[in-house]
Write a structure and sequence with these properties.
This protein is of the alpha+beta class. It folds into two domains: 27 residues; 104 residues, TonB (TolA/TonB C-terminal domain, 2-Layer Sandwich), CATH 3.30.2420.10. It contains four helices and eight strands; from the N terminus they run ααβαβββαββββ. Strands 1-8-3-4 form a four-stranded mixed β-sheet. Strands 2-5 form a two-stranded antiparallel sheet. Strands 6-7 form a two-stranded antiparallel ribbon. 18% of the residues are buried.
């Protein structure tokens, strides 16, 4: 009887994971993160990408450009973008997550031009994914 209860519990958890979006197929993950991946992406011990925080990414930025905003724009707020940086330090892809549409577009276009000091794991250069946040007042 205990084994049947355990099976029911496992099936329930898996069903909830699918329904809640915790378990995604590779196609769904690709759709959610349009940048795809790269063969030398920094991953943890179980193969999940290591997510680099905004402050750490900004410390590695060596060539940045500021977003170009229309002078008439009166928008403010926080813009957060996901970014995938290749092992050579160039941005492969940027995706805006939140904020005013004009600010999102300006930040995305600016970050696409950024370059970073390459990240490494051991002696090998690696690609990284993470987010960058910007506040406009």
């Amino acid at each position: 009887m205990k084994s049947l209860s355990l099976v029911i519990l496992i099936v329930s958890v898996l069903a909830c994971a699918v329904k809640c979006g915790w378990a995604q197929s590779a196609a769904e993950q690709q759709q959610a993160w349009p940048c795809g991946t790269t063969s030398n992406l920094l991953v943890d011990s179980i193969g999940q990408p290591v997510w680099i925080a905004s402050d750490e990414l900004k410390k590695h930025a060596v060539d940045t450009s500021n977003p170009k905003l229309p002078s008439s724009l009166r928008a403010s707020g926080r813009i957060t973008v996901k970014v995938l940086v290749n092992s050579d330090g160039h941005v492969k892809c940027v995706q805006a997550l939140s904020g005013h549409p004009t600010l999102r577009r300006a930040v995305t276009e600016a970050v696409q031009k950024w370059t970073f000091k390459p990240f490494s794991a051991g002696d090998k250069p690696v690609a990284v994914s993470g987010h960058l946040s910007f506040v406009f007042k």
